[in-house]
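User: I'm new to structure prediction. If I give you an amino acid sequence, what do you actually give back? Let's try with this one:
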Amino acid sequence: MITTAIRVARVGGRAELAAAALMMLGYPCLMLAALLPSTPAFAAAAAVTYLADLYLHRKGSRLVGLLTKVGAGLPTRFLVRELLLVLLLARLGVSGEAVFYAAIGCFIVFFGLQAPHGALITLIGKRRQMPVVTRNVDLVSRLAVPDAPPRRLLRRAGLKMLHLDLAAVVGLLVYALTDEAVAGYVGVGVTLVLAAVYVLALVPYVRPRRLPPKADKVLATVSSWLREYRPETVLYFSGSADSAYQVNMWLETMEQLDTRPLIILRERAIMERMAATTVPVVCVPGGVHLMNMDLSTVRVALYAANVGKNIHLLRVPTMKHVFIGHGDSDKLASVNPFSKVYDEVWTAGRAGRDRYAIADVGIRDEDIAEVGRPQLAPIQPWRGTPADRIPTVLYAPTWEGWDDNPGNTSILLAGENIVKKLIAAEPPVRVLYKPHPFTGTRSAKAGAAHRRIVALVKKAAADRAADARFTADPAAQTKAKAELTRLKARLDALSLAHDAQADEAVTSRDGLVDLRKHEEAARLRTEWNEAYWRSFPSFEHRVITGAEPRLYDCFNASEAMVSDISSVVSDFIASGKPYAVTDSAELGADEFRRQNTAVRAAVILTNSADDLDQLLAAVRDPAADPLAEDRRDLKKYLLGPDEPTSIQQFNTAVADLARRAEARNAGQASHSAPSAGGTELPDDVTAPTPGPAATA
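Assistant: Good question. You get back a string of structure tokens that encode the predicted 3D arrangement of the chain. For your 696 residues, that looks like this:
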């Protein structure tokens, strides 16, 4: 019942539901208290509505937006509360007193000030919004961008302005309780003065010298920088805020290109969620602005997603266009017919080429290049279990997805069986449980299963800590934990992440990366990861959530993995280690392998996890592993050869395509040369009369 109420009210949990209920009930209570009249009851109900409303805003509850849509937005709720206060005063019989009219006048003027306040906030926000947002582009020496107004003036400005009525409300309630008119006048005066001061404090920031240059000057400056920088390879991306990971996965690859890289984004939300990088980034929301930018030196454009806005760059003929995607898999998105618009499609290995041939969506074989997966470079190859610890098995299931297909995740039907068998295995193994971050967000059953698995792992860890067969080194762990604290503090101090609350004009102005800090952060993250695995016993079962340690770090700390059909499996294949995949939909091993290329070298598990012993046997005795050769062949088929490295293959493909673009451009220049030189027509040929299209 509570779950249904949370979903209907569009709140994030029980606490938000309670706050919403209190706020909704508070207003009828205010009316009742005003009609009785009861000043203490009114004061209590008013306090509840203030606090509940503020809590919902701070939590970013979707209910707040829903109330606005139905005409019960924040200003309306404040106005209703103030009118009910006036009603309370009238019912108390003070409608003939001067303080009563002062209260009415205060609220009229107070709401009159909302208009100029809102207009100033909107104007400042619009004028400080740049037509182009940049990172790692030198604007400081080219463009005068003034500092932004203090955050305390602009952040939640409407909410702050409305809450200034609190002084008047408190003062008038004190007057109603004590009959001291001075309290009412003081409260009214404080509210009006603070509101007027807030409005006046914003006025200086709409003066021209406090605003960034106009759009045409900003665009001209960015184009001038582009002409000097002369980018050669562009990563182009457009998408929703949730798709930012699709561009983030290519940042390290762009940093390792042999050519001058540039990243072009189309949405500000992507810019806000983009990871730190040394590559210049230009976010151009406007299509016309993008088409007017000087990209004449770009020879290769890379596209990580098939979206409509790609057409704004695809129209440029002087560069070659390549679809690189955001991961190889057997999903339909990997063989999208839209890919016909690109000059080439790059896949990791032969599997991608075959996938397009089987799908028969119009992609020619000669337009496909195999370039490997540069992102998988951090995954270390298997060299057997280290002598100083027991084998580790990673259980990394995917989430429940958007429907109730049992094949989406193993958590519901097989998860507990998998973990129980791993925990009870003899000889013993260590279990790392790293669930997908979305697990349980849609399905309550998946969330409950996840919590049961967490409880299993934690109980097993406690039991093992008390087992005399396993001995820890408390001193080494304490030292490692202290090291983790030090490294985290240092990483936080570097502050490389984008400040989502920063003014975009200031972000563009100050967006030059500090290379020293960037390199230091990379080194510190490596040290943090090493210290993390030393901070607890090497035999301890562990639940790993959050961004750190990363999934690839867990790959490197494990000797085997159990997972579901997802890109996690395809990535793990790069390690060459044994792995198992759960056939949760119970298709049968043969059909499961036929439908999913990535499981052809896997141990296939049923929901009972009975075949898990086969995976554990391969870990304990790699020489007797029957699937080792199959994994090597599948790795080459899916991801390409180990030599040359993926980044070398990628750079070679970029260089080859750039030469083709140069050859095309040279050919076009030679074709246009005769007409530019005024070649005469033969006597028997009459020059055509320009038509409307030619004239245009």
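You can read the tokens as a compact description of the fold. Here is one thing that stands out. Residues 202 and 411 are 54 Å apart (CA to CA).
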